[in-house]
Please model this.
Amino acid sequence: MSAADHLSSTGPAGMPPAHAPKGYLHSPLKAGWRRLLQRRSARWSLHVLATLGTVALFADFIANDKPLYCRLDGTHYFPVLRQYAVDLGWKHWEPRFMQQDWQDHAYETVIFPPIPFAAKTIDPNTKANLGPFHKQQSANWRRRHWLGTDPLGHDVAAGMVAGTRVALSVGIIAMAVATAIGLLLGAVAGYFSGSSIPVNGIRLCLNLLAAFLAWFYGWEIEKYDWAWAARDGDLSSVLPAMLTRIATCFLAANILAARLKKIPLRPLQWTVRIPPDPWILRTIEIFDAIPGLLFLLALLAVVPTSSIWYVMGVIGLLRWTDIARFMRAAMLEVSPLPYIDAARVMGFSPRRILFRHALPNALSPVLITISFGIASAILLEAALSFLGFGIAADQVTWGQMLAQARQHPQAWWLAVLPGLAIFLTVSAFNLLGEALSDSFSAGK
Amino acid sequence: MPTAVLRRLLLFLPTLLAVSALAFALSRLTPGDPVLHFLVSNPFETAISSPDALRRAEQAYLTAARRLHADKPAFYFGISARAFPDTLHRILPLDRRLVLEQLTAQFGNWPAISDYHQALRQLERHTLSLPDSLHRFAANFRLPLLDLYTARDPATIRHRLDHALPEALQLAPPLQAFLEQPLRNLQDSYRFVETHPDPAALRTPSFRWYGADNQYHHWLSDFLRGDFGTSRYDRRPVADKVAPALFWTLTLNIASLLLASLLAIPIGIGSAIHRRKRFDRIATIGLFLLYSLPVFWIGTLLLVFFTTRTYGMDFFPGPGLGYLPSTAGPLEKILRAAPHLVLPVVCLTYPSLAFISRQVRNSMSEVLRQDYIRLARAKGLPRWRIYGRHAFRNALFPLITILGAILPGLVAGSVTIEFLFNIPGMGWLTYQGIFTKDWPVVFTVLMLGAVLTMAGVLLADILYTLADPRIRRFS
Model:
């Protein structure tokens, strides 16, 4: 927008024009949000995402083979809730619950979840590969498999609910990792583009030394113990020691640097100027050169035990580049604005200007990238589990259910339903991203 | 301008090095001993009859290890604790080296550990050079002895040395005359390791420079020379496996790229011309839906509904390529496999269709807003000339960047589609490679993918510079 437009739309002395909604001048984010909600597609995708989020959050209460509540021999139990306590090691199951199936107890009162199966329960009364419209031999309508069963006899509806949780958590956690890295690097690269960060040379050298020492004492001489601990699956003997050593190295280096800086000797005031932009751009280029799916496949094949956490972490570590690039571009637009200059003149520290004043104003393009990023992370994880990688044996994912349809073409519900869920989720995030990009760039 | 291209090329090098180091580091993490894999059968398992057989087995292992550069240091330099000798990488086989490393990491006393290892080998040689009449007794003694080569936990070693081996010797009195002394040597050497630890050596870092004769250097220079190593699965050169896979992947991808461009460019131009009209709106929504449809889902649906008898719509043959005579030329192979390729091509086409037409629409509508288009309209030029000659040619520039984005996919293939339809292309090769633990193949495809991604970006940058006069003038 040109300067003339700017003047005419804000009115004299920076006051909002009479027709502008409240909060217009104070927060571009708020205005963008309001524009977003005026779009039908955005409202639709937000509704879908809220529903999916609720399902993911309360997955254990929606599909579970344990009752939500039951009364047995005069005692009240909340087995679904209790499972959380048991998982945390706070409580134990009574022997009778361990020995007998949940539906076989002589309850006085019982409330089962809407879908009375867990994703991995095998119902002894039903056959495998049962279609949604096939005749089912369940005891009553409550135990009917509304979406059929898979080739092993698992309930498909319960699998869909469990898959929602995996898909959303992969998308959100992977993008949280990516956003943390991308936001920081992109903002620094954009804000200091064409200039450099002054760093105290002594502090830099001491930190480099600390990094070396932290690597050597935290990892290099401990790595054989690590190998043993990783094989036993118990890292508690090595992890705290490692973190303490690393923290000690860096803490000592920085305290020493702060002390040394106070000594009024010229060599101790030595300043190095580091231009972050080219370095960060180079790093982005390197990460962009890594073929994501191939790299993930190779990595998951190499690690001894696969877990969904690796998938989340690696997707996050690979996909931060888009966020960084957009953040950098937005920062390049924001940093020459007069209010940033004003902040500089007022003597604010670069860190404060960067994180308190410039970054919040450059956030909106990042929202768009995050939304698209979540969609692509979900898609990537689905493709991985479709190929049979990266999921623990006790987990059910949409991609994995879809892969079963390849071997069992007669089970059309396995081909249609999980794919539909992936499609819905991915397109909701994509639509949201599209709507975000339209409503946040409309002001420009 | 040439300096800009040159500078770009120079920046390409560090990226290549970083990515190759990453792939190499990952390939080093793979479980198992590559030398034993290369040898197919473990030579040490059969070397139980005589010292000569053992020597021959060691020789066979060493020859293979030398061929695979497994006896070289991993990188140009290394930093490790002073306790480890700088010639550690020469100790073979790998599992023994690992055990010695772990013992050193506990006691830090390398000379003593080395003596212990020598005493162990000495004892093994003694068990092999027994007179023929005693061989049958030796078997019970050799089992706990060989276990010592893989024992790294002090308690286990002590138990073997002080209980298992002496007891085995007690049970076979004729052996005692031959083996008692070497066993005592072994016990003494291990006791010396335990009683003389050197923790200070474990806490002191030391830097070692190994020079260019290292595994990474050989691996990268072999890769750049086109020698990708030998497949662990069928011992064929990896390059020989990549070539036919590349043929099918390129066939699939070029076909889908052509199809996608043929459809996408008219749709994109139409959307730009009728921007915000009905055609544009329908095309935008339709393409958006297409773009969000997961490829592997559509692939599965097509596979389930159109290739199986169950639903009475088996218009296409099932997965795989059908029978292809090995004497057939490339064109004949493609023609014979054509019915099998239809569904995969459809799956590969529709996402890029959405992507390309979106790009065409954006760049075309950008151009249509320019003054020279307004001028052309004002001049009264016919519409087809405005759109076809003035607008479209200029709108094509940004599409060059798509080329860069597409190139790596052309070669790396789509793992999911090739897996789903059993097409023996690059993606399928990777998938098989991972399942059969054929690491040379996996890391070759990974490196090829990375190199081509970078080359694609580079090519797009250079073409862009060459094609756009504005950039040419001002850079």
Summary: Chain B touches chain A through 58 residues (CB under 8 Å).
